[in-house]
Design brief:
alpha/beta; seven-stranded mixed beta sheet; single chain; 27% helix; elongated; Polyamine Oxidase, Chain A, domain 2; six-stranded mixed beta sheet; FAD/NAD(P)-binding domain; 2 domains; 18 strands
Length: 328
């Protein structure tokens, strides 16, 4: 009997690959260092409801992804989001509507990966630190020293710096992953007892420590009270303040928010800061996915393509295609 396929990471890329491989009749086992699926599409539960601290929305341009998003919509996993969109630059806040179709998970971003995961076997809170080869199969070692396996193939669906370390058995793949720089983002959530007196639902920001903010209640399926906002710092600000305390980050970004929102800003009733160390790749690539098919080692992720949610999904599809093609 063929050994199962290990997939490390349960973000969009890993689950995209898992779906294809499972549908093709392969046994897959997933490993995730966090307590839940989603990666940067995860939502954090809090005293003020679920918060989308990572990916805020996504778009669909590739025909294949457009079709799958329409299927997700039909199943109620996603909904179209049409925020009152603004832009802030040179100290000025102005309406900035566009025709872009934006999608969000319903009722939270993590709804998508939870649905994709379904009943597939997954081990949460399990950080894989090493992928090593036995006589005929692959094995995984986790941070607790436990060994998992044997596996016929391994798909690594983590941010590029983590993938590079796990690809040590395939130096060319490890080198490619190591060449991809990932940029950090500080994210802050603020909740207010009464709704802020502003028409802004979302705003692209320039000339500020922030580069994005959004009103949670403007997204379909979200709770209306209290009035919760998510702020993202720019990559450059986040890099400069990578090791700043969460308290100081909250103070700085709350101040930046107050400067640009254009209405009175009371003290928040809830606040939270989260650092995404590997928020997005610094540049796009056209690899699709990395593969050493003879070795049985693969890697996928948004960093293999566009850095977008769509890129992550397409990369997962491509890694599964490469793996299945090699078995024919």
């Amino acid at each position: 009997m063929t050994a199962p396929i290990a997939i490390i990471g349960t973000g969009i890329a890993g689950l995209s690959a898992a779906q294809v491989l499972h549908a093709a009749g392969h046994e897959v086992r997933l490993f995730e260092k966090s307590r839940g699926s989603g990666g940067r599409m995860a939502s954090k539960r809090s005293d003020v409801g679920a918060l989308d601290l990572g990916a805020q929305y996504f778009t669909a341009r590739d025909r294949r992804f457009v079709e799958v998003v329409q299927q997700w919509q039909a199943r109620g996993w996603v909904a179209e989001w049409s925020p009152s969109l603004y832009h802030f630059s040179n100290g000025q806040l102005g309406a900035s509507p566009d025709e872009q179709v934006r999608w969000v998970g319903n009722p939270r971003m993590s709804a998508i990966t939870r649905a994709l995961l379904g009943a597939l076997p997954v081990q949460f809170s399990c950080r894989i630190t090493e992928v090593f080869r036995g006589e005929r199969h692959w094995n995984l070692q986790d941070a607790e020293g436990q060994t998992h396996g044997p596996f016929s193939q391994v798909v690594i669906a983590t941010p590029s710096p983590q993938a590079s370390a796990l690809l040590a058995a395939a130096p060319k793949l490890a080198g490619a992953a190591a060449s991809v720089a990932m940029e950090p983002t500080w994210a802050v959530a603020l909740a207010f007892a009464s709704p802020l007196d502003t028409k802004v639902d979302a705003c692209f920001v320039q000339d500020s420590p922030l580069d994005w903010l959004t009103r949670n209640r403007s997204k379909p399926g979200r709770d209306n009270a209290p009035d919760t906002w998510v702020l993202h710092a720019s990559s450059s600000w986040s890099k400069q303040h990578l090791d700043m305390s969460k308290e100081a980050v909250l103070e700085e970004l709350h101040g930046a928010f107050a400067e640009l929102i254009g209405c009175a800003l009371p003290a928040p009733v809830f606040s939270l800061a989260h650092r995404w160390l590997y928020a997005r790749p610094a540049s796009a690539h056209q690899w699709g996915a990395l593969a050493d098919a003879d070795l049985g080692l693969y890697a996928c992720g948004d960093w293999c393509l566009s850095g977008r949610v769509e890129g992550a999904w397409l990369s997962g599809q491509e890694v599964a295609r490469k793996l299945l093609q090699h078995q024919q």
